[in-house]
TrEMBL record:
Domain of life: Bacteria
Entry annotated with the keyword Nucleotide-binding: yes
Residues in ABC transporter domain copies: 2-233
Matches recorded under CDD domains: ABC_Iron-Siderophores_B12_Hemin
Protein name according to UniProt: ABC transporter ATP-binding protein
PROSITE patterns, per database record: ABC_TRANSPORTER_1, ABC_TRANSPORTER_2
GO MF term list: ATP binding
Pfam families: ABC_tran
Taxonomic lineage of the native organism: Bacteria, Bacillati, Bacillota, Tissierellia, Tissierellales
UniProt keyword Secreted, yes or no: no
Sorted UniProt keywords: ATP-binding, Nucleotide-binding
Amino acid sequence: MIRVEHLSVSYGKKQVLQDFSLTIRDKELVALIGPNGSGKSSLLKAVARILPYEGKIFLDEVEARDMSRKDYAKRLAVVGQFNDMAFDMTVMDMVLMGRTPYKGLLERDTDKDRAMAGEALAAVGMESYAARSLRALSGGERQRAVLARALVQETDHLLLDEATNHLDIYYQLKLLSMVKDTKLTVVAALHDMNLALAYGDRIVALKEGKLLFDDAPENVTPAMIEALYATPCTLHEVDGRPVAVFKKP
């Protein structure tokens, strides 16, 4: 479970998240949506302890500030939208970095670690890329490798910060299907309304740093979407899930 209470985040004098509270239940995938600048990434970066914040964050009833960075990394993994590396390495070496929270300072990777990394790469369709340089990968390939790194981190909680942005349609669907099948507790910031409706157990909408609505996909209405994006749409049911069709401006 992830719980945030009265969370506020600011960049200097600009407040981007205001007194925000939310609970994500165990094994639930919450789709976080909203216009650019609505506070989605700031919320996830605060939960990941990348940004300073006011308020409280809990993982399974333990407050984030009461955990060491290493213990926190055993509980929560993050896949962001930009994954440029400061230096080059092989795909396998990057995926093995997900095992860092479980190791001492000079401890080497074990056969078990390498087997886990190989399984994670296979799960994201990257097993044949293990020996390749990261710099030789496309943006979408790198994104799948970063997901493999998150999987070998063996956490119960996963944050996806617009992690599908560099992927083609096939791998957007494959990544979200795979994440949903893990039964982890997931918060996924998404730009695509239809991906949110298709994969979210709940849709949480942010606008101007505040909660606009929090509801099941089947309860989302065209009026709610128009209030969020200022764009009219219609909703149609496909395979038991709503699909949004937006009107041209």
